[in-house]
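tool=predict chain=A
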Amino acid sequence: MIDVVIRGMSESDISTVIKYNAVMIGETIDENTIKDHLNNSNLMKYLVMETKDSKEFIGQISLWIDEDKAQINNFYIIHKYQKQKLGKMFLNYVFRYFKSLNINEISLEVRKSNEVAINLYRLFNFNQINVRKNYYKNGEDALFMYLRIGSD
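tool=predict ok
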């Protein structure tokens, strides 16, 4: 497995993240919104994964965290690095981070057609709660998934 680094996103990562958001997710938020989140939001957290040696971008995850609840907003590994268990490694890192914050509830939406992501989330014990019809701009449905962790 390749050596990777997971770190907080910096302003210098924004153009790369915007580029890959469009490629991997099909949409993106604008540069100013991300800058505002990075500099002024206590609720939003952005993490990037890159190769340890060359600092090549591998993927990103954005999280919304409010007290003991979290939502995974965007999460992907770019095509070049898929099928190397890096998504699982990234989520394991995020779960350790959540544990350090005493997060008890995690939710997310995933495209109904994204079987690879759905299987990964199920591996982490997420359950499908409902379907959000026509959730994405192209009219595709989203599966709303939820996981309760930690103590009650």
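The first strand starts at residue 4 and ends at 8. Strands lie at 4-8, 44-51, 57-66, 69-77, 105-111, 127-132, 142-148.
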